[in-house]
């Protein structure tokens, strides 16, 4: 199995997420198709789309929906930006083909990640593994081993046992070189049954790499699956602390907490100098002992000149989630004499929640002055401090040994 994620990737490649959400969800029941039903506070489809939005690699997004599902889809995707929507067909493979055709019509792609809307817990580490595998093969799927014994059965009686050693449970996203899977789908006989795209790829002779999947990526199929918590190993809360300061100067834009604030001066720095987002980035990295913002985005690197600090924060969140951790909450304090932060608190809270794919209730935004004392009191600069709490798997014994 290919399991070592590469963070280098191939920067010029065009990647597209093709998320199929055109099913009826009959086995799950309910008033609306399952992909629009709420799971952990958000529609299943939104979870799946947000996983790609939060992936540091740029990715166009195409969602395939069923007839009459436009209003449900628009509500589920509200505020997520540039997401294309196309109508699917009667079978899953018809929906995938419709999506591939729409991508081709819009100028094509180099790589496509075909994903079930019904698999809401997609970690960016899985995407990294698939993407890396596509450097060597035209297709790649995430798989899990079979852990139970297997047998054929007939008439309620067991027949032969089946050797499980070479068998794998296949998940989505299934990743392919776009032209190869598009041609395979066009060649697939209309009406023939394929439960997934790797079968269609194999029928066209494409090699499909097996990469490590994720138990959390389980498909929601039945009503009771909604009740399940994300399968995870034992978790422990971990806390990280971030602190940052930037100087105020005339002629600069002021970016704070991911929004632009009108002010007579702005913060000076190599990036957009958003102290608030920098403090949260460091808090998240610190919570998982992943170093600090300067190690990941060195000020000496020209590519970060003037950069939107939202990119740093989104990357830190993806590193945290890539370690199997969930962000529980953020608490931010901005320290300055001016501008007044109160009128901007809600916008900052919402922006940080959007970047981190959290509910705004998970983001606390506070502000204080220092009673005109010190550099913040004299208006020479703005400081920010943040605390992040994450729920993370316990370190494995081998990781403990390595850090001893
Ligand atoms: N004609 C179809 C059928 C399925 N899907 C999508 O394919 C994924 C996996 O399918 P499944 O879990 O079987 O969903 P449903 O077909 O909706 O479920 P059911 O068979 O219970 O009706 C889901 O995201 C579903 O929306 C699709 O886009 N078009
Ligand atoms: C595509 C899939 O999720 C891969 O495991 C699976 O084959 C979908 O099967 P379903 O019968 O459409 O749920």
TrEMBL record:
Its cofactor is a divalent metal cation. Its EC number is 2.7.7.60, 4.6.1.12. Residues 238-390 form the 2-C-methyl-D-erythritol 2,4-cyclodiphosphate synthase domain. The record marks 27, 34, 270, 369 as: Transition state stabilizer. A divalent metal cation binds at residues 244, 246, 278. Pfam families: IspD (PF01128), YgbB (PF02542). Residues 238-404 are annotated as: 2-C-methyl-D-erythritol 2,4-cyclodiphosphate synthase. The record marks 164, 219 as: Positions MEP for the nucleophilic attack. InterPro entries: IspD, IspD/F, IspD/TarI, MECDP_synthase, MECDP_synthase_CS, MECDP_synthase_sf, Nucleotide-diphossugar_trans. Pathway: Isoprenoid biosynthesis; isopentenyl diphosphate biosynthesis via DXP pathway; isopentenyl diphosphate from 1-deoxy-D-xylulose 5-phosphate: step 2/6; Isoprenoid biosynthesis; isopentenyl diphosphate biosynthesis via DXP pathway; isopentenyl diphosphate from 1-deoxy-D-xylulose 5-phosphate: step 4/6. Keywords: Isoprene biosynthesis, Lyase, Metal-binding, Multifunctional enzyme, Nucleotidyltransferase, Transferase. CDD domains: CDP-ME_synthetase (cd02516), MECDP_synthase (cd00554). 4-CDP-2-C-methyl-D-erythritol 2-phosphate binds at residues 244-246, 270-271, 292-294, 368-371, 375, 378. The keyword Glycosyltransferase does not apply. Residues 1-237 are annotated as: 2-C-methyl-D-erythritol 4-phosphate cytidylyltransferase. It catalyses: 4-CDP-2-C-methyl-D-erythritol 2-phosphate = 2-C-methyl-D-erythritol 2,4-cyclic diphosphate + CMP; 2-C-methyl-D-erythritol 4-phosphate + CTP + H(+) = 4-CDP-2-C-methyl-D-erythritol + diphosphate. GO terms for biological process: isopentenyl diphosphate biosynthetic process, methylerythritol 4-phosphate pathway; terpenoid biosynthetic process. One of its GO terms (molecular function) is metal ion binding. HAMAP family: IspDF (MF_01520), IspF (MF_00107). Bifunctional enzyme that catalyzes the formation of 4-diphosphocytidyl-2-C-methyl-D-erythritol from CTP and 2-C-methyl-D-erythritol 4-phosphate (MEP) (IspD), and catalyzes the conversion of 4-diphosphocytidyl-2-C-methyl-D-erythritol 2-phosphate (CDP-ME2P) to 2-C-methyl-D-erythritol 2,4-cyclodiphosphate (ME-CPP) with a corresponding release of cytidine 5-monophosphate (CMP) (IspF). Belongs to the IspF family. In the C-terminal section; belongs to the IspF family. This is Bifunctional enzyme IspD/IspF. It comes from Sphingomonas ursincola. The lineage of its organism: Bacteria, Pseudomonadati, Pseudomonadota, Alphaproteobacteria, Sphingomonadales.
């Amino acid at each position: 199995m290919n399991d070592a994620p590469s963070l280098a990737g191939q920067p010029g490649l065009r990647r597209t997420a093709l998320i199929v959400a055109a099913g009826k969800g009959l086995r799950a029941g309910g008033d609306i198709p399952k992909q629009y039903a709420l799971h952990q506070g958000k529609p299943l489809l939104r979870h799946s789309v947000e996983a790609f939005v939060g992936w540091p690699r740029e990715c166009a997004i195409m969602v395939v929906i069923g007839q009459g599902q436009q209003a449900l889809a628009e509500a589920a995707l509200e505020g997520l930006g540039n997401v294309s929507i196309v109508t699917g067909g009667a079978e899953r493979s018809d929906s995938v083909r419709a999506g591939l055709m729409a991508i081709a019509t819009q100028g094509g792609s180099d790589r496509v990640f075909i994903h079930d809307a019904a698999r809401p817990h997609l970690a960016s580490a899985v995407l990294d593994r698939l993407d890396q595998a596509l450097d060597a093969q035209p297709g790649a799927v995430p798989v899990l081993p079979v852990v139970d014994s297997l047998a054929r059965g007939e008439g309620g009686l067991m027949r032969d046992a089946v050797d499980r050693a070479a068998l794998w449970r296949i998940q989505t996203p299934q990743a392919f070189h776009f032209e190869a899977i598009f041609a395979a789908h066009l060649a697939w006989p209309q009406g023939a049954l394929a439960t997934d795209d790797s079968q269609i790829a194999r029928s066209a002779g494409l090699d499909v790499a097996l990469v490590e999947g994720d138990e959390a990526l389980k498909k929601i199929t039945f009503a009771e699956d909604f009740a399940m918590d994300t399968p995870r190993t034992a978790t422990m809360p971990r806390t990280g602390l971030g602190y940052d300061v930037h100087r105020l100067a005339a002629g600069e834009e002021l970016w704070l907490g991911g929004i632009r604030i009108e002010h007579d001066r702005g913060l000076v720095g190599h990036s957009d100098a958003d102290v608030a987002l920098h403090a949260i980035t460091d808090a998240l990295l610190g919570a998982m002992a992943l170093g600090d913002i300067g190690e990941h985005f060195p000020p000496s690197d020209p590519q970060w000149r003037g950069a939107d600090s939202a990119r740093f924060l989104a990357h830190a969140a993806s590193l945290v989630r890539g370690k199997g951790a969930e962000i529980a909450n953020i608490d931010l304090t901005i320290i300055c004499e001016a501008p007044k932060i109160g009128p901007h608190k809600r916008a900052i809270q919402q922006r940080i929640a959007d970047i981190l794919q959290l509910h705004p209730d998970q983001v606390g935004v506070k502000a204080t002055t220092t009673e005109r004392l010190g550099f913040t009191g004299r208006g020479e600069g703005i400081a920010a401090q943040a605390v992040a709490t994450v729920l993370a798997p316990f370190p494995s014994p081998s990781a403990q040994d390595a850090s001893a």
